[in-house]
Amino acid sequence: MKFLKLKIIISVYVCLILLAVYNTFHVYSTSKLSAKQNVFAKLSTAANILAAQIDGDEHEKVTSKFNTKDQIKNSVEDTSYNKIHLQLREVQKSTHINTPIYTLVKSKNNQFLFAITSSSSPYYFHTYHNPPKELSQNFDKGDNLDEYKDENGVWLSAFAPIKNKLGKVVAVVQIDKNFQEFLKDINNQFFNNIIFIILVYSVIGFFLYIFLKDVLHKEETHNKIQKNYKNELEIEVKQRTLDLNKANIQLTKVNNELESFFYSTSHDIRGPLCRILGLTSLAKFEDDKQEIVDMIEIESQKMDEMLKKMVLVNGIRTKPLDIEEILVYDKINQILNQVKSKYKYAKADIKIKLDTQSLKKFHSDTEIFESIVTNILDNAFKFSDGLSPKIIINSFVDNDGIFCLTVENNGKTFSEIELKNAFEFFKKAHKKGDMDTIRLGLYTIKNCVDKLNGVVDISYKNDLTMVKVLIPDYHLDKNLLNVLPDTIKFLG
Q1: Which of 100, 191, 230, 395 is 20 to 30 A (C-alpha) from 119?
Q2: All residues at 6 or more sequence positions from 258 whose CB lies less than 8 Å from its CB, including other chains
Q3: Residues 360, 421 share a domain
Q4: 202 in a domain, yes or no?
């Protein structure tokens, strides 16, 4: 019997050791692959965002003006160079990237030259001696570079094209991660995993040995089971009580918000309604009623628009997502044409940049997606300067399936407090009238974006109000704030 027990214990321990070895290498392989994907996601997203933000014409101006090696020796020598240098440095800082971010241009003999860098020491127009072939092949559309070697080491990189106003690619922005540094992080994690696995299997083996050596008495086993059951039951009761309290708090919050929402919007609807009643009374004493009828129609449309947004906001709370495949380029053009037809300006300065190469198929709720884009574009057209409106629209879907939309317009200005509370409909505004309509539109956009696990931000710079939205493809199945916290922090 002793020899049988010994054989069983030895066999079990051999199996445990083999299983531990397998799990160790499996965890290492999986961790490495996952870590690579995370690195590429971070680098690619940052590169695409930078490529969209950098002014391609300004970049082209710098490289045309200074076209010889080391002609720029200090980042402050040229205003345009310094502007792009600061953009690269800010992204490097916000994304915690250790190596400099830089741009590359093609020379006439198809060599790659370093242009603008986030480093304080320019490396201007030095030749890139051993560029990866993917850089030449995908120069016009961007790509990820997996474990390539050049004169400076081995790297993981991502690059994205920088375009001018005509859509011509004038340069690429490239962001690197040192592969040795990447491996060091993975190996440290692997070492910790080995220690953990050894500890776990040692504990399992110890208890298994005790179990095989001495079989517990039936009564003791029964008492232990009963005790464990009682503890588990107490834990479950505590957890359910905690969940119930959280649900009650959330329900109270929603009820208070709904009460405030309907109280506030009822006052906003009363404004157009009172004006309609006043115009109706005035019409009784006027012979020519056409102008009054037109004014009544305008006020009625305002009230109808506000009611539609109220219904939309309320519907979002209960509406289940209906995920469909969206042809983003076609959908944005369709919405843009609808919105533009409502606002006809004589001398409008409207700039539209839809990246046709990357505006691919996208999976989301079509109705909510349309509501977001329509409200953003409608606000931009409605509240831009009526005398000389200026509107800039930029949109793309990056390689990770994240839809990005940026809309800028002149016209209405916001105070710092109003910008801070722009998406909170129930905060007091310092301005009335159009401000209430703007806040309802922004509140609607915020609710729609939250429903799709996206992020939205509003800012005011260079006399332009900018609204930025990021929405992940539904199949990412994650909230953007958890997927890319550093990038989102930079956008905010």
Answers
A1: 395
A2: 314
A3: yes
A4: no
